[in-house]
Amino acid sequence: MIRRCFQVAVRLGRHRVLPGVPQVLPRLNPTSAFGSSTDALVSRFCLKKTDLKDYALPNASWCPDMLTLYQEFLEKTKTDGWIKLPSFKSNRDHIQGLTLPFGLAVASDISDWRIFTRCIQVEGQGYEYVIFFHPSKKKSICLFQPGPYLEGAPGFAHGGSLAAMMDETFSKTAYLAGEGLFTVSLNIRFKNLIPVGSLAVLKVDVEKIEDQKVYMSCIAQSRDQQTVYAKCSGKEVLSLSTRLCPATITLRTNGRKNAEDALPSWDPAF
Amino acid sequence: MIRRCFQVAVRLGRHRVLPGVPQVLPRLNPTSAFGSSTDALVSRFCLKKTDLKDYALPNASWCPDMLTLYQEFLEKTKTDGWIKLPSFKSNRDHIQGLTLPFGLAVASDISDWRIFTRCIQVEGQGYEYVIFFHPSKKKSICLFQPGPYLEGAPGFAHGGSLAAMMDETFSKTAYLAGEGLFTVSLNIRFKNLIPVGSLAVLKVDVEKIEDQKVYMSCIAQSRDQQTVYAKCSGKEVLSLSTRLCPATITLRTNGRKNAEDALPSWDPAF
Q: Which parts of the sequence belong to the Thioesterase domain (chains A, B) (predicted)?
C-alpha cells in the first residue's frame, strides 16, 4: 500500500521520499528558521518574473483607507524591510518545484482549483486583501476588505470570513518565518463586527518557534486602532515529522471516486 | 447622533427601539430558550411556503456519502424529530419581518448580498452543505462537502473554510436553540485535513445557556467516525444587551462612503 501521507510532503515540494518507504523527515533547526532560510523562502515565494496574476494589487473596489495604507506599506518595502507578498489564485502556484508523482491532479476530474481566500473572482465582491511581511521582525500586516459575498449579519462580514483571513495570514507568515505547514489551532475572540466594504487591519506576530510549532498572535482592528474587531492566537506545525505522519497511518478513501487523497494525521493535545 | 448600534437590532427584526433612545433590551429567559420559543423560532426559520431558492438540497456534485447520509436524516425528520433547515442565499432572507428604518439597503450601492457560506454559486465548486437541527435535543448535524474553490493545501480544504462552516452551524443552532445572535469565540483544533470533494460530518451540541451566552461544541469527522478532522468550542451571545450595545458607543464610518454601518460592540474576556 502506498503511504499516501508522503504524497502531501511531495506535493508541497519540500520533502522528497520514496513511495512505500516510511521516512523520518528532518526536524527543523530553529536557528535556520530565524536565519538565512527565511530569505530563501521569501525569494522562492516572491517570484521576480511570473505570468501568474497577482490578486494582491489595488483595484477599483478598494476603499480609500485600504488604498492609502497599501501605499504606505509599499513605501516601507523600499525603506523599512517590508515585503509585499504576491497572491496567486492557488497555493499550487505559490509552491515552486511542485511534482505530483502519484498524479492527484491528473487522476482528478477537477482542473480548476482556487485557494479559499481567492474563491470569488469579481473584484470587490469577496475577499480583497494584501499581506505585507517583515522577514527580520517575523511579523505581517494584512489589509482586508470584505465584500458583500462575505456577509454574515446583514451589512457585516461573516465571522468565518475573518477567521479564514486570519488563518491564511497565519499560514503564509508561518511558512515564511519558519516553514510552518499546517494550522493546528485557532483561538478567536470576536469583539466587533466589520462593516462590509470597510478596512480591517490584521497585525500578525510570530511569538515563538518551539517544539516544531510556530506560535502566532493576531489582532484585527480598524485603521485608527480605535475598534478591535477580533483577537486570535494560533499554532502552525513546522514539518511533517513522524508524529504527523506515523508509519501506522491508514489509507482512507472517504467514499468518493476522486477523493483518495492523503490524510496527514497529527494529534495535537486538544 | 443616531445610535446606529440599535439599527442592528432593528435589522434583525427582533428588537424594535426608537432611534437615539438608549434602551435596555430584555434579557433572555433561559426557560423560554429551552421551551416553546424554540418551536416558534423554528417555525419562523423554516418557511412552509417561499419562492426563495433552498441551497441545502441535493445536486449532481454531492458525493455518495453525502447523498446517503442526507437521505438518512431526511427519514429522521419524519420519525425522530429532526428538522432540515433551509439555506437561502442571504441571512436577509432568513430573518423575517425585517425593516430598515434607516435605509441601509437603500443607501448602499450594493444590491447583491450573499451569506459567506453560499458565496460560490456553481454547484460543487464551493460550499455544499445541509444542516439538520433537533429542537428538543438542542443539537445539529451539518453535512459538509468542500469544493475545489475552498482549497488550502493542494487537494485539501482550507482550514478557514471549515472554521467558517463551524461558525455558521454554531450560529444557526444557537439562534434556534436560544436566540443566539453573534459568535464571540471560536476555539478550533485541527487534526486531519479534509480532502476536497469528500464528506465531513459536523456534530454540534449546545452544552449550556448561561449568563446570556450559548456554549457550544463541535466535532467534525468522517462518516465512519474513524477520522477526526477538527474539534471546536464556541460561544454565542444571546441578545443585544446594554453590555453589547453601550450608551457610550461611538459611530464609526471607516472611511468608506457606504460603510456607515453600526458596530455593535461587546467586550468578552479575552
A: 155-227
**Cα angle for residues B96, B100, B102 (degrees, 5° grid):** 165
The domain containing residue B79 runs over which residues?
A: 38-95+114-238
Element (H, E) at B210: strand B200-210
In a domain, A80, yes or no: yes
Chain-chain contact of B264 with A166 (C-beta, under 8 angstroms): no
Q: In this structure, is residue A6 part of a structural domain? A: no
**What three-state secondary structure class fits A59?**
coil
CATH assignment at residue B47: 3.10.129.10
| Of A100, A97, A90, nearest in space to A43 by CA | A97
| Chain-chain contact of A188 with B190 (C-beta, under 8 angstroms) | no
Which candidate in A51, A167, A205, A224 is catalytic? A167
> Cβ contacts (< 8 Å) between A179 and chain B: which residues?
none
In a domain, A32, yes or no: no
For A70-101, how does the pLDDT look when each residue is reduced to its tens digit (9 = 90+)? 999 999 999 999 999 999 998 888 775 544 33
Question: Which pTM was predicted?
Answer: 0.79
Please check whether residue B193 lies inside any domain of the structure. Answer: yes
Tell me: the pLDDT tens digits for A192-235?
Answer: 999 999 999 999 999 999 988 999 999 999 999 999 999 999 99
Interface test with B, best of A149, A237, A253, A270 (most B CBs within 10 A): A149
